Amino acid sequence: MSSGIRALWLIVPLMVFGLWGILHTPDPDHDRDNEDSDVALAKLPSLPGWSRADLPDFSAYRDTTEKKAAFFSFLYPRIVLANSRILIERDYLDSLAGKDELSQSELTWLKNQAERLRVDEEPASETMFLRLRNRLDVIPPSLVLAQAANESAWGTSRFARRGNNLFGQWCFSQGCGLVPRGRVEGASHEVASFSSPYLSVRSYIQNLNRHPTYQLLRDIRLKARKRDDIASGPSLAAGLLGYSERGEDYVEEIRSMIRHNNLDYYDDDFQAIVQQANAQELLELAAAKQEKTLLPGATTADDTNSEG
């Protein structure tokens, strides 16, 4: 084999891994483990203490049904928490869009959100507000649950257990995560580590909300918004063609997991909670003192009663 061909065999895997890593890159390292890295907003409450909990040992479950139920019960409150905080920010964005003039602090918040969501438009312009509103939005629980289960082997993968990483996000700074076994020689990517599963959920949502690969997902979500609806997990799954090298097969697998595990139930519960929620009710969701109050069928009144 000629030296040129041998060199090509070495370069091609690196190029593939490099391109693949771009799709799975989470927040910058300085954001990833900072629980206060939400863009500063006075009305956004501090994260509740339970959001910092590590991932349980799901490998201890011998019964598959019990393991799945425990996985969903652990993750769903964290999805509601992340999405409710997005909705509070979204409401604030709408309030700014209706103003004739913004204060310096309001303009700073707007610019910081634009930077975080990679919106490069004239500050406070109509186009900036439009693009931010399309990106600052929720991801349906069924999709989050199915992808988390798929990517983390129901919370039992090495990256989930040691790095709280449920979605396979990559990072590229030395020591930012765990080195994958069998990583191609010369590659520098790691699988990102998070200080909590909640931060992994938030990073995953941000990735879908801002990366160009998932524009189709955002377009589908926008069409649902125009119907005053929240897009379902199966519908948004069509926008995940770039999430895996398996393409359409991956999309169908995620949809199958949603169907097989009846994850639409969580979408229905979430929609029932938030579609008619007022500002105060969203704040209660975003500051729930106990995660069990965010499970299906619970109410924030349960949270108040539990305080004795």
Automatic annotation (TrEMBL):
Keywords: Membrane, Transmembrane, Transmembrane helix. The chain crosses the membrane at residues 7-23. It comes from the Bacteria. InterPro entries: Bax-like (IPR053195), MGlyc_endo_b_GlcNAc-like_dom (IPR002901). It holds the Pfam family Glucosaminidase. Residues 94-251 form the Mannosyl-glycoprotein endo-beta-N-acetylglucosamidase-like domain. The keyword Membrane applies. GO terms for molecular function: amidase activity. This is Uncharacterized FlgJ-related protein. It comes from Marinobacter algicola DG893.
